[in-house]
Amino acid sequence: MTLDASLRDWLRLSRLATDPAGRTRIVPLVAEMAAKHVGAAAALVALIDGETMRITAAHGCHDTAFEEWELDPDALGPELEEIILERCRKVSERFEIVRSAPLIADAALFGSLVVVFESAREIGDDSLQILAGIADLAALTLSSASQFDRLERVNVELRATRAVLEKTEKLRALGEMAAGVSHDLKNILNPLGLYMQLAQRQLASGEIDQARASLDEMRGVVRRGTDLLESLRHFSRQAPDALEQQVDLNALAREAMQIAKPRMSSGRRAMPHVIEQLADPPTVLARATEVVSAIVNLLANAQDVVSSGGTITVRTGAQDDGAFVEVEDDGPGMAPDVRERIFEPFFTTKGDAGTGLGLAMVYATMVRHGGKAEVTSELGEGTRIRLWFPTRDEPRPSPQ
Ligand SMILES: Nc1ncnc2c1ncn2[C@@H]1O[C@H](COP(=O)(O)OP(=O)(O)OP(=O)(O)O)[C@@H](O)[C@H]1O
Ligand SMILES: [Mg+2]
After folding, report:
1. pLDDT, tens only, 290-312
2. What is the pLDDT of residues 313-347, one digit of tens each?
3. DSSP letters along 127-170, please?
4. At residue 383, what are phi and psi to the nearest 5 degrees?
5. For residue 65, how far is the Cα from the chain centroid?
6. CA-CA-CA-CA torsion for 140, 145, 147, 152, nearest 10 degrees?
7. How far is the CA of 349 from the centre of ligand 1 (A)?
8. Which residues line ligand 1 (CB under 6 A)?
9. How far lies 23's CA from each of 48, 140, 144, 146, 252, in Å?
């Protein structure tokens, strides 16, 4: 035996512990190492398996039907050696002496490493010491292999759990998204009935051009509504994302005001004054329908809070390599604890009259566009929400 040979075997053994494909080769290698390095004619590895102990691998005694042997798991040392010798001699009389070393890991006995000699002369001074050393090494390797096994199983379970969680999270988000889209859809489709009535009236009185204009408005509203529904399909990845286009925030702000107007005039309160302060913002790359919906949401919130004859100001402009559109009202403003939560889905102070999804949708739109929503609001001083979009040439990669 050279140090090189034993070192090589030791390295093979330790590598097998971390190789899932090689784990079944550990026990046969231990038997082989024991026979070779102890200088025995044969070696066996007996492992405790529940109520019995079985020979799991053997080296140098191929003709032995060792797999059939069932041994007493409590048999240890000389007792075990005697039983094994008796069985070995039935196979071949050349086997004369048996020695064993226990396999212990984590303070538990889980088997024995057994070597069989043909003559007492084969047992060298340090044979039993080498046997004990190999048994320790084998125990350590087998125990770390089973720990690796356990870790791998836990890992597989964790991956499975994570997949379920991700699916649940996706479904939850899809639910929120569906609620949000239906919320925005209601906002957008709201004026349809009004334009329809108007068109009917105009047709009845022969105002064909005006009726045509009302129909055009209706067509625009339906187009925005369909686009909005598409966003649900994009979310569930059933359809490619709607394309971003270079948009003019002034045009989108006007479209949003047009959509929000019927809601303002339908209430019993006096119409708020709507002031347009549209400057000259640079075009920005955006999904127009989402931006129109976001502005309609801001206008709807402003309409809900302004008092009779209050004022809503819609502004656009350029800011920090981008463009903004904002809606300001002279309503009651918000207390800090409300202001902090307004973008949370389902947060509302309007009871049954609100779903709390409007600003959550606005927030999601701003994240998708790489922009931001800035809130300025003080109690008694009104509220201003500014949507800022960066100017970009390249579309943003689709969120995963
Ligand atoms: N302009 C505003 N002035 C004062 N409070 C506001 C204003 N805009 C939003 N808020 C507050 O933020 C909350 C959340 O607004 P959000 O648009 O998300 O939901 P909502 O308006 O309550 O419900 P829904 O949009 O379904 O009508 C509102 O309930 C309100 O308390
Ligand atoms: Mg709202």
Report:
1. 899 999 999 999 999 998 789 99
2. 999 999 999 999 999 999 999 999 999 999 998 89
3. HHHHHHHHHHHHHHHHHHHHHHHHHHHHHHHHHHHHHHHHHHHH
4. -135, 145
5. 52
6. 170
7. 7
8. 183, 297, 301-302, 305, 329, 331, 334, 338, 342, 347-350, 354-360, 383
9. 17, 13, 10, 9, 66
Long-range pairs of 351-359 with CB within 8 A, sequence gap ≥ 24: 354/304, 355/179, 355/183, 357/176, 357/179, 357/180, 357/183, 358/183, 358/184, 358/187, 358/297, 358/300, 358/301, 359/297, 359/301, 359/385
Domains of the chain: 3-159 (3.30.450.40), 243-400 (3.30.565.10)
Which one, of 125, 105, 133, 148, lies nearest residue 30 by Cα?
133
Residue 244, classed as helix, strand or coil, is coil
Write out the two tokens for 272: 């708020």
Check residue 316 and report its DSSP letter: E
In this structure, which residue's CA is closest to atom 31 in ligand 1?
Answer: 349
Ligand 1 atom at minimal distance to the Cα of residue 302: 1
369 C-alpha to ligand 2 centroid (Å): 20
Average pLDDT, the chain: 85
Residues 58 and 114: their CA atoms lie apart, in Å, by: 9
Is residue 74 classed as helix, strand or coil in its secondary structure? coil
Distance, CA of 46 to CA of 27 (rounded, Å): 9
Percent of the chain scoring above 70 in pLDDT: 92
Q: Kindly give the number of the ligand 1 atom that is closest to the alpha carbon of 382.
A: 3
Å from CA of 48 to ligand 1 middle: 69
Ligand 1, pocket-test mutation among 263, 327, 350, 355, most atoms within 8 A of CB:
350
Whose CA is closest to 37, among 68, 83, 2?
Answer: 2
| DSSP3 helix / strand / coil % (the chain, rounded to 5) | 55, 20, 25
Mean pLDDT of 90-96: 84
CB 6 within 8 A of CB 38: no
Q: Which two tokens stand for residue 140?
A: 């350590």
Find tokens 């709607």 and name the residue: 242
**Cα–ligand 2 centroid distance for 228 (angstroms):** 17
Quote the ligand 1 centre to 72 CA distance (angstroms). 76
pLDDT per residue as tens digits for the range 128-175: 888 998 898 888 888 888 888 888 888 888 888 888 877 777 777 777
